[in-house]
């Protein structure tokens, strides 16, 4: 069984299962495989699971399974990780982004800090696929990685009190789309018109952990036509 496995109590009917120590595609694959296997093995005993970068929060039903039995199930699923598996790739989801100084108030500062023209920052941002590693902070806030090292930038020293819905930001080697207006300290480089969370929709979020994201540049007019808020 993998030496990285750790199981810690996380509440009255919850445990946190750690499957690694770093953010990487390999660890993310382990998380996805483990999450799927555990839900299959303990279907009637699991209330919910919340996968993240290198861990899975397991909310279980204590009336159906005890902690020790749950621990054995977790360890059984973890043993399956040592066997070669081929995980199906997540969905490819394309998100349009209006890039530019008007849409991204931190684009010019980030570009100057990296000795790049703003256009180069934009090209490097949308020129690769990102993986959804986790969803948190707020419903629909998907943590995506990893951005090109050339445009990685630490969070702002002083977070903004309000970041608009749809703002696209960079923090270190992660990027994300703000699902709602909220405080935030990420470096903003553009705006996305797609609603990342809609509680009334059949599928409240357009992405889930394990999906792949490709950003596609659009102009201001298309941004507004697609439902973006100026």
Textual characterization of the structure:
Helices cover 23% and strands 30% of the residues. With 230 residues, it is of the alpha+beta class. The chain folds into two domains: 6-82, Gyrase A, domain 2 (2-Layer Sandwich), CATH 3.30.1360; 92-225, Cyclophilin. The chain has a seven-stranded mixed beta barrel. β1 (6-11) and β2 (14-18) form a beta hairpin. α1 crosses α2 (67-79). It is elongated.
Compressed to H and E, one letter per element, the order equals: EEHEEHEHHEEEEEEEEH
CATH architecture of the largest domain: Beta Barrel
* Strand content range: 25-35%
Mean pLDDT: 91
Assign the CATH topology of the largest domain.
Answer: Cyclophilin
Range of helix content: 10-25%
Shape: elongated
Question: What's the structural domain tally?
Answer: 2
How does the helix and strand content classify structurally?
alpha+beta
Radius of gyration: 19 Å
**Helix segment count?**
5
* Order of neighbouring strands in the sheet with most strands: 5-12-9-10-7-6-13
| Residue runs with pLDDT of under 50 for 5 or more positions | none
> Span from first to last CA?
52 Å
Write down the CATH class of the largest domain.
Mainly Beta
Let me know the CATH homologous superfamily of the largest domain. Answer: Cyclophilin-like
Sheet with most strands: 7 strands, mixed, barrel
What is the number of E strands?
13
